[in-house]
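The following record pairs a protein chain with its ligand, adenosine-5-diphosphoribose.
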Amino acid sequence: MARPKIALIGSGQIGGTLAHLAAMKELGDVVLFDITDGIPQGKALDIAESGPSEGFDAAMTGTTDYADIAGADVCIVTAGVPRKPGMSRDDLLGINLKVMKSVGEGIAKHAPDAFVICITNPLDAMVWALREFSGLPHEKVVGMAGVLDSARFRHFLSLEFNVSMKDVTAFVLGGHGDTMVPLTRYSTVGGIPLPDLVDMGWTTQDKLDAIVQRTRDGGAEIVGLLKTGSAFYAPATSAIEMAEAYLKDQKRLLPCAAYVDGALGLNGMYVGVPTVIGAGGIERIVDIKLSKDEQAMFDKSVDAVKGLVEACKGIDSSLA
Ligand code: APR
């Protein structure tokens, strides 16, 4: 059986890391695409040349021609610009919206059966726009944010409790921005919910609050350190986790920016919610019940996403 084909639209920091991870995990043959000639070809060759030492079997090619993504099983989109210190993800909206238009048209023409994972920011609005421009089924177009935000939350919690990250589970919902909602009640250490750990005296509410805030600011913390771009190792790893769930029909329960129509009181929008990813793409939206406080935070985040979608419609009238 032929190996799956993975197309990476955008071959910058995240795109290159995605290619390397996909090769190391032997998820399939990789096509790196970019508008800047030389970058995708150079990265593809460089990664292919790591193959003999690493021992993976995966073809790596680079291209500036959308025709080369033909028949891709998975497309991961990072095309666009990342933020610089002082910028919010929302500041990228105008420029990245134009990029989503060309990417959406390219995917629609050459890889209409692909499972599409969008990483480009501002995430929730860009994945919505990419779906609109591509016309692909909603369950096959999803945004990567919750896996990353939850991973950041899990990492900070593992430091606080001095336990393995493997034993920490966490849920972050809502939009991928300052209003994201880390849900402490649904986050656990060894199965024990965080509020219980506060009651047990293993940590304090103040420390937990600080970790929640650090999670919300997780992307900005890295932008502030790097100064020349934004995070790429953890974003790429998170998207690969989603791609693997699809390609191997793992039925993973992962928080993603998915199209929600009915669940959580929402009708027809993209936002971060718990999902099940398998061979059907987004196979289920998990309709969790929120407390009054959690609902208020989620509503605020939903409103922020709606504001960005309206801004997109204002910029490109074909979306209105
Ligand atoms: N089509 C294809 N590729 C494009 C296009 C386009 N229309 N416009 C820009 N690109 C390419 C750039 O040439 C660059 O190689 O997208 C790549 C982006 O790479 P980086 O600048 O290194 O950005 P990266 O860190 O990978 O982040 C990409 O993901 O997390 C988000 O906020 C981040 O929106 C940003 C995106």
